[in-house]
Amino acid sequence: MTSSFPLPPNTAWPVALPDDRELLDSLHDRLVAVAGDRQLIDVGYRTVDSPIGVLLVAATDAGVVRVAFDSEGHDSVLTALAGQIGPRIMRDRKRLDVAARELDEYFTGRRRHFDLRVDLRLAHGFRRAVVAALPTIDYGTTASYAQVAAIAGSPAAVRAVGTACATNPLPVIVPCHRVVRSDGSIGAYRGGPAAKRLLLELEAG
Amino acid sequence: MSSSPPALPPFERVVTEHGAVVLRVCRALLNPTDAQDAWSETFLAAMEAYPALRPDSNVRGWLVTIAHRKAIDLHRRAARTALPMGELPERPAPAHPESDPALWAAVAALPEKQRLAVVHHHLAGLPYAEIAALTGSTPAATRRAAADGIAALRRLHSTGALS
Q1: Which CATH number do you get for residue B125?
Q2: Looking at chain B, which residue has its C-alpha nearest residue A40?
Q3: ipTM of this complex prediction, to 2 decimal places
Q4: What are the tens digits of pLDDT across the range A4-32?
């Protein structure tokens, strides 16, 4: 009944097929290409090597939505994204080609501004206002948490600015590392204080 | 971050974990070119339906079920284009000579019911009840068909045909 598998006569036996691993890789890439065209993919991601460790970079059709440090655990970040955005999450180098190239240029000192579409849907309310204000801090300069609170329109919300920076979904691309304490000390960072110091030194040239 | 309900894992993980099994099933049912098409169509259809899948589902069984249906579709399509009239000859599908060509050929040469039972149970790990639902049989008959198929393969092996 439902199972009927007659075959045309004499289908030649394949002499050699590509290795399974290779075949599965190419089937994977073809799947991602077709699914991307049909807008079936909620989030595409890849990793990018950097001086502050391997970064996970993820994007929706609207733009880059998440940058994550090694220390966050890339698998747990992807699992969280499945709940926050959607479970159709695929490794997709092509979607992140431009972002990877710009990050590479930034880390080698050849880029001062990111020219990327970003999707800020993971930052809500006041945190989103802070994240949206951060790119006004120029490359190579810093601002205090109090200054950012003022720029974001709530001068008293200094602690909330700290939280917004600590939960910035797009570190490096959205420069929360340029926000430091008023006393000049470096302050906290999602990727750890050493990474923050490295980025500030990189930008100081 | 903590307020989201337990979610399905990223689909990439589904492809990584089950891609090879689905490919083996497709190869056991189809020629190599059609097997690749069936693999692609299976995962595309699965991706479309994935957000509605219950998180506690048997994902491999779900995928093998889709692959089974896609294989039937591809057979029908091939039948329409290749041999427009009359019954197709009952011939086994050539499986990919993955590690042991003789074994694969022997699996491919099994009668259809035995072949499906062997492939779905021993290759894809589906329980007999699920295979029975797929093939319109009963769990008991499916178990028997799988046992008969394995016995036939053993016989071939002991006569040296599979070594």
Answers
A1: 1.20.140
A2: B48
A3: 0.87
A4: 444 333 333 333 345 688 899 999 999 99
Choose, from A170, A176, A179, A199, the residue flagged as catalytic.
A176
Output the pLDDT for position A97: 96
Mutate to test the interface with A, among B4, B21, B47, B112 (most CBs of A within 10 A): B47
> A115-125: buried (b, 16+ CB within 10 Å) or exposed (e) per residue?
ebebbbebbee
CA distance B67 to A75: 28
pLDDT in tens, A71-113: 999 999 999 999 999 999 999 999 999 999 999 999 999 999 9
Residue B68 lies in a domain: yes
Q: Which residues in chain B touch residue A88, judged by CB atoms under 8 angstroms apart?
A: 11, 47, 50-51
Q: Do A24 and B96 touch (CB under 8 A)?
A: no
Residue with tokens 């120029």: A138
Q: Cα separation of B10 and B128, whole Å? A: 29
Contact residues on chain A for B43, CB-CB shorter than 8 A: 27, 31
CATH of region A22-107: 3.30.160
A125-204 CATH: 1.10.10.10
Catalytic residue list contains A165: no
Host domain of residue B121: 11-158
CA–CA distance from A190 to each of A137, A160, A162, A168 (Å)?
Answer: 18, 15, 11, 8
